Amino acid sequence: MEDHAVRNFKDFLLLYNQLTERCFKKCVDQIQRRELDQNEVACVENCSTKFIKYNNKLMGNFVVSQTALVNKRTKEMEEEQKKLLEEQKMAEINTENSIDSVAY
């Protein structure tokens, strides 16, 4: 569980760093000032909102597609397992028939 939490935190930091870098490059014109001006603040807010909405939509689509993929693979594995069980039963029946025919 701890590894999962660490991975989630690393993913969060990666997204945060991407957001910060992208919005800084896009919105901040003058780095000589200590404070952002109103236009830069508005730009950063719009940029970060778009980034967050985009990321949420992307993650939502990823979850949907992953769920569909997992369901498809599960169904394929169940069908393969069913096929193997049927082949095993047929092999057992053939073995029993061979033993019966030799016994008579």
TrEMBL record:
- GO MF annotations for this entry? metal ion binding
Kindly give the InterPro entries that the UniProt entry links to this protein.
Mito_inner_translocase_sub, Tim10-like, Tim10-like_dom_sf
Asked if the keyword Transcription regulation belongs to this entry, the reply reads: no
Q: Where in the cell is it found?
A: Mitochondrion inner membrane
- Boundaries of every Tim10-like domain copy: 7-62
Alphabetical keyword list:
Chaperone, Disulfide bond, Membrane, Metal-binding, Mitochondrion, Mitochondrion inner membrane, Protein transport, Translocation, Transport, Zinc
Annotated TM spans: none
For this record, an example GO cellular component is: mitochondrial inner membrane
Which GO biological-process labels does this protein carry?
A: protein transport
Topology within the bilayer = Peripheral membrane protein
Where does the protein principally reside? mitochondrion
Q: Which SUPFAM superfamilies match?
A: Tim10-like
One Pfam match, by short name?
A: zf-Tim10_DDP
Family, per entry:
Belongs to the small Tim family.
Describe the subunit structure.
Answer: Heterohexamer.
Instruction: Quote the entry's note on domains.
Output: The twin CX3C motif contains 4 conserved Cys residues that form 2 disulfide bonds in the mitochondrial intermembrane space.
Say what the protein does. Answer: Mitochondrial intermembrane chaperone that participates in the import and insertion of some multi-pass transmembrane proteins into the mitochondrial inner membrane. Also required for the transfer of beta-barrel precursors from the TOM complex to the sorting and assembly machinery (SAM complex) of the outer membrane. Acts as a chaperone-like protein that protects the hydrophobic precursors from aggregation and guide them through the mitochondrial intermembrane space.
Protein's UniProt name: Mitochondrial import inner membrane translocase subunit
User: Which organism does this sequence originate in?
Assistant: Brassicogethes aeneus (Rape pollen beetle)
